[in-house]
Write a structure and sequence with these properties.
112 residues, mainly alpha, 78% helix
Length: 112
C-alpha cells in the first residue's frame, strides 16, 4: 500500500524550504551589495522616478477606468474626491493622512 499522505507532506516541506531558500538568497545578496550603493546616486533617483510614475499611473487608472465598487460611482465623484484629497494634502503641508482622510470623506459624502 502507498502512503500518499507522507509523500504529499514531504513535497510540501520541500517546496517550503526551496521557496524560503530562494527568498533569503536574494535578500542576502541585497544586503551584501547594499553597502556599495549610494542612496543619493543616479540609480536610486531613477528607481524613485519609476516608482512615482507607476503610482501616478495606477491612481489615474483608478479614477478614469475603475474596477469593482468604484466602477459604480460617477466620474464627478471620483475626480472631485481626488481634487479634495490633493487640496487638503497641500494645504496641510503635505500631510498624507489628512489628504487620504479628506478624499475618503469626500467620496463617502458624494456617494451618500
Amino acid at each position: 500500500m502507498v502512503d500518499w499522505a507522507g509523500e504529499w507532506e514531504t513535497g510540501l516541506w520541500l517546496a517550503a524550504v526551496a521557496g524560503a531558500g530562494a527568498t533569503y538568497f536574494w535578500r542576502g545578496l541585497g544586503v551584501a551589495i547594499s553597502r556599495h550603493l549610494r542612496p543619493s546616486g543616479p540609480l536610486f533617483e531613477w528607481v524613485a522616478c519609476i516608482a512615482y510614475g507607476l503610482l501616478a499611473g495606477l491612481v489615474g487608472r483608478m479614477i478614469v477606468l475603475p474596477l469593482g465598487a468604484l466602477q459604480h460611482t460617477a466620474m464627478e465623484a471620483r475626480l472631485g474626491s481626488a481634487a479634495v484629497a490633493l487640496g487638503v494634502y497641500f494645504l496641510t503641508r503635505r500631510n498624507q493622512f489628512a489628504g487620504i482622510a479628506a478624499g475618503t470623506g469626500a467620496m463617502i459624502l458624494w456617494i451618500w
